[in-house]
Amino acid sequence: MTKAVRVHKVGGPDVLIYEDVDVHAPGQGEVRIRQHAIGLNFIDTYYRTGLYKAPGFPFIIGNEASGEVVSVGPGVTNFHPGDRVAYYANLGGYASERNIAADKLVKLPDHITHEQAAVLMLKGLTVFYLLHKTFRVEPGHRILIHAAAGGIGLLACQWAKALGANVIGTVGSKAKADLALANGCDHVILYNEEDFPARVKQISRGELCDVVYDGVGKDTFPGSLSCLKPRGLFVSFGNASGPVPPFPLSELNNHGSLFATRPKLNDYVGKRSELIEGADALFAAVINGTLHVPINHAYALKDAARAHTDLESRVTTGSSILKP
Ligand SMILES: NC(=O)c1ccc[n+]([C@@H]2O[C@H](COP(=O)([O-])OP(=O)(O)OC[C@H]3O[C@@H](n4cnc5c(N)ncnc54)[C@H](OP(=O)(O)O)[C@@H]3O)[C@@H](O)[C@H]2O)c1
């Protein structure tokens, strides 16, 4: 038996049930891990509410974590009991112990803590591919990052700044603005109070942005398109306020021959070689000081409902973890 947070029906945070579950011995190609820290993600709320579909009920929610190998199943030769490991995966994360396919795991360098790894595997890898693959950020690029003080936001602002970009962030409060400025933003816009496209135009002296990274979705659309220079790239990577509504392609034409993409992590680091490339880049960025991992909130796993409430109420900043 182990403890896990399961969803038996979709709904609000109260559908997160902390309970005993059986974990079988690891099967072919699987590893059993005792988890030390679990990353809290906005994506977890999508599975809880049913915006993203789980394959069946009940399911264990959660998509990234870090821990220690307890035992390995047949055919696993590259992991051993005691190894420190971390992963991102579709579901199964909110648990004290779990089995997982060995090819999902990466080993942690000595200088990376479980807490850091638990928020780097989904959020960090996402920032890695957004800044290095979806659009290759280079010195001199002007970029807009929405929800700049969030989990993805603070990591993205830091890394984009280190890559030489001019970083504009949007945030929901003055306190978040201070945090974003301390984490790489050159300019911050309070998008609940200010007309953010007008402010971007003003800040950039009319030149606008090369790329907009938009994880907010419904509430920042179509304003995000107005922040892009001709042939700029609209990266819609999330739905914190709800999904972007369907729109005619002619909108991209109207705003200046724009490009648009709706990326997801698995399509960028789904191959083992890509996963290792991304994890190596992330761990190196933390170890060499490019990235500081702001873990601003910690909850007991049994308090997952409170963590979801805080995340959805926009109370959290940076990354949050659950402790089994
Ligand atoms: N496509 C991918 O591969 C991928 C992977 C990981 C995450 N994501 C996406 O990245 C985004 C950020 O994820 P995260 O886990 O780091 O979350 P987060 O940014 O820590 O939290 C979401 C933030 O969005 C802002 N927000 C704006 N409107 C909101 C609303 N109506 N309700 C709640 N929050 C609202 C809030 O910041 P303010 O108060 O400052 O507005 C809030 O703090 C999410 O959309 C997530 O789905 C995408």
Chain-averaged pLDDT: 98
Order of H and E elements: EEEHEEEEEHEHEHEHEHEHEHHEHE
Domain tally: 2
| Model regions low in confidence, pLDDT < 50 over at least 5 residues | none
Percentage of residues assigned to helices? 25-40%
Bound molecules: NADP nicotinamide-adenine-dinucleotide phosphate
Q: Output the radius of gyration.
A: 20 Å
| Morphology | globular
The structure class reads: alpha/beta
At a glance:
Helices cover 30% and strands 27% of the residues. With 324 residues, it is α/β, with parallel strands linked by helices. The chain folds into 2 domains: 175 residues, Medium-chain alcohol dehydrogenases, catalytic domain (Quinone Oxidoreductase, Chain A, domain 1, Alpha-Beta Complex), CATH 3.90.180; 123 residues, Rossmann fold (3-Layer(aba) Sandwich).
Report what the structure shows.
- The protein is of the alpha/beta class and 324 residues long.
- It has two domains: 2-121 and 269-323, Medium-chain alcohol dehydrogenases, catalytic domain (Quinone Oxidoreductase, Chain A, domain 1, Alpha-Beta Complex); 139-261, NAD(P)-binding Rossmann-like Domain (Rossmann fold), CATH 3.40.50.720.
- The chain contains ten helices and 16 strands.
- The protein has helices spanning 42-49, 114-134, 151-162, 174-182, 196-203, 223-226, 250-254, 266-269, 272-287, 304-312; strands spanning 2-7, 16-21, 30-39, 59-60, 64-72, 84-88, 97-101, 106-107, 142-145, 166-171, 187-190, 209-214, 228-236, 259-261, 295-300, 319-323.
- Strands 3, 5, 6, 7, 8, 15 and 16 form a seven-stranded mixed beta sheet that branches.
- The radius of gyration is 20 Å and the shape is globular.
- The two termini are 14 Å apart.
- The site of NADP nicotinamide-adenine-dinucleotide phosphate has 30 residues, from helix 1, helix 2, helix 3 and helix 10.
